[in-house]
Amino acid sequence: MRYLEDFVVGEILRTPSAAMPEEETLAFAAKYDPQAMHLDHEAALEGPLGGISASGWHTAAVVMRLIVEADVLLGGPILGLGVEELNWPAPTRPGDVISADLETVSITPSRSRPTHGVVRIRVTARNQDGATVLTMTPKLWVARRPEQS
């Protein structure tokens, strides 16, 4: 397991990649974000993104899966305390392949729970062309290394 003391500010970890198949993109949108820009090719061409795109929430969910697959805590649970910001600078399109860089930006031991601390990571997800499709800064609750007796 990876502990709070194992993190280093500035460290960057790259996730695996994931494809965004059109059928999954459409299914997610139909269930959770049923807007024309996510469901209807013709209507999406007239919309603000100039074509069909994945819901930003779908992109966020896939990036979360990539963070889990990257095994940031080496088998430990990933418990998020919140996200300070979440941005979608460019649309994710059906057929895109995305991956993310996870940069450790701060490490703060907890004063109230000395067995844990907070690691803030900057997540930057890009598609196969290098366009940034998501940025966010989640706060992770991470165990401290147990004291040896």
Number of helices: 4
Count up the domains.
1
Which regions have little confidence, pLDDT < 50, spanning 5+ residues? none
| CATH architecture tag | Roll
Measured as a percent range, the helix fraction is 10-25%
Overall pLDDT level: 96
Question: Can you describe what's shown?
Answer:
By secondary structure, the chain is of the alpha+beta class. It has a single domain, classed as Thiol Ester Dehydrase, Chain A (Roll). The chain has four helices and six strands, in the order ββααααββββ. The chain has helices spanning 22-32, 36-39, 41-46, 56-69; strands spanning 12-14, 18-19, 79-87, 97-109, 116-126, 132-143. Strands 1, 2, 3, 4, 5 and 6 form a six-stranded antiparallel β-sheet that branches. A hairpin with a 6-residue loop joins strand 4 and strand 5. The longest helix has 14 residues, at 56-69. The two termini are 19 Å apart.
Core attributes:
single chain; Thiol Ester Dehydrase, Chain A; alpha+beta; 34% strand
Secondary structure elements and pairings:
Elements: E1 12-14, E2 18-19, H1 22-32, H2 36-39, H3 41-46, H4 56-69, E3 79-87, E4 97-109, E5 116-126, E6 132-143
Antiparallel strand pairs: 1-4, 2-4, 3-6, 4-5, 5-6
What is the gist of this entry?
The protein is α+β, with helices and mostly antiparallel strands and 149 residues long. 23% of the residues lie in helices and 34% in strands.
